Amino acid sequence: MLPPNFTPGPWRRVRHRAIAAGTSGNTVTICEVLSGGSGIDQADANEALISAAPELFTAGAMIYKLISSGFLTAGTLATDKDAHVADCRQAIDALRSALRNASTRFTS
Description:
Strand content: 5-15%
Order of helices and strands: EEEHHHH
Strand order of the largest sheet: 1-2-3
Radius of gyration: 17 Å
Low-confidence stretches: none
């Protein structure tokens, strides 16, 4: 898999609801999260999710690689129950889609 095209992590909170990457003189602001009509709690949760995005992408890509290489399989993860196998395949498809949406350079 090619590396994603987003600003490398780690991303961190640098001030109230502002997320940045880099260090001191090389800090790059990723975004500022506004509460708008969603409320303070939801804005804080969005901030946490956004700041974890590079780590989530990396973890998802690692898991997807294990699954797509056959190291982990839908049947092994979900036993032999058809409903569980279908749920696992749906989760794998969702992970693949999320990784593709996060990086146009992702290849399966």
